[in-house]
Amino acid sequence: MSKRYSMTLYLTGATAARTGDEMSGPALLLVGLSVTGSASASSALLSAITVSAAVGGPVFGALLDRSTRPGRLLAGALAVYCAALLVILLSLGRLPLPVVLATAVCGGLLGPALAGGWTSQLPRVAAQEDLPRANALDALTFNTASLAGPALAGAVAMTAGASVSVVVSLVLIALALPAAWTLPMRTPAARAAPSPSVVADLVAGFAAIGRARPLARATLTSVVSYIGVGMLVTCTPLLGERALGSTGSGTFLLATLAAASLLANALLARRPDLLRPDATVLGSVLALALALLLAATLSPLALFAAMAVAGAGEGPQLTALFAVRHREAPDRLRGQIFTTGASLKITGFAIGAGLGGPVATWSLSGSLLVAAGCEVLAALGFVLLTVLPVRHSDAPSSHASRARVQP
Fold it and tell me: How far apart (Å, rounded) are the C-alpha atoms in residues 220 and 166?
């Protein structure tokens, strides 16, 4: 743990980067819709910048684990992501859509840096005894970003235009660069002997996720759940138009979801002993399923109630997921496990975003019902991985157990 790097600086940088990231998705949806006039095209743009995370996350995490100055690698990733957003904005409507989508796919390779890249460094910032509270505070930065990002995207788009909304999002990410650059370097005691190659690290990271039953279960559940979340987010401009009269106002539905998430995680930050990580993961997807069924009624009052229920489930899911990863991840693979988990979730979101637009064009209620079905599948996956017989390889070895001790 660094004696000079404060938790406040970490939280400030993480909040700025994640707010910019949360703002960029709705901003791209709005600018895509305004330029192309097509819900399918705008959802394809959001899907493109998220789908490549499945490749970028594990590789970036492996590089992060091998780096003696992981903060500088993280800062570089944030800078390139900002540049990708700018190129997308400048080329949209001027170049063929497939070219713009290809640019978005390339930029999306670094998307997990804004999520798992930060969180994997938390044990080097907070002492072991402070980690549960620090973990809840870290999750709060996601909730704050989820609240502020969509609201900012909608407000800026309505007052200054959707293009300006994208610019503001990349500026926020850029403001996090100093906090990332100065993150603590890896101490000699924390460095493991390097493996022969990045590919070997990738194999070890995926094997670690599959070998630890709670980690595999939480990862699978969150990924399937985020397919439904991606469909919901893609539907929000159309829901806003239906319920509030404009596509831009749909971002305020997302803000309602984020506010409920923020309140739930604020409670957990004050009382971290209330969290039962594994049970919380299951409870969260059941709450999301209920919320999506309620939203499918398309009633304005029901929509806001649905977003509040969804937030009350989704916020604690994130805190619980972080707790499971910190508990189960060997230190030498921590960065990769966090970025791999983040990238898989982002990919699940991308699949949902890609499905959400076309299905919503056919039926808005139908899209929300399909999303609810994804949450039910996530719950079934959790139960299945709970009741399956435990193989010998599922039980952690004494070496793996020692590796989980926080630095």
Answer: 31
Q: Does residue 346 have a pLDDT over 90?
A: no
Residue by residue, DSSP assigns 343-404 as HHHHHHHHHHHHHHHHHHHH-HHHHHHHHHHHHHHHHHHHHHHHHSPPPGGGSPPHHHHHHT
Q: Give 92's strand partners.
A: 95
Tell me how far CA of residue 404 lies from CA of 123, 136, 329, 396, 399, in angstroms. Answer: 11, 19, 6, 10, 9
Query: For the segment 306-332, what is each residue's pLDDT rounded down to a tens digit?
Result: 999 998 888 888 888 888 888 888 777
CA dihedral of residues 212, 375, 60, 145 (deg, nearest 10): -120
- Separation between Cα atoms, residue 366 and residue 377, nearest integer Å: 17
**Separation of alpha carbons 374 and 371, rounded Å:** 5
State the Cα–Cα distance between residues 112 and 329, nearest whole angstrom: 17
Contact 74, 180 (CB under 8 A): yes
pTM: 0.69
CB of 51 closer than 8 Å to CB of 87: no
Radius of gyration of the chain (CA): 20
Closest CA to 280 of 232, 371, 193, 217: 217
**Which of 137, 365, 169, 155 lies closest to 262, judged by CA?**
137
- The string of pLDDT tens digits covering residues 203-255 is 777 787 878 888 999 999 999 999 999 899 888 888 888 777 776 667 778 77
What residue type is assigned to position 277 of the chain? P
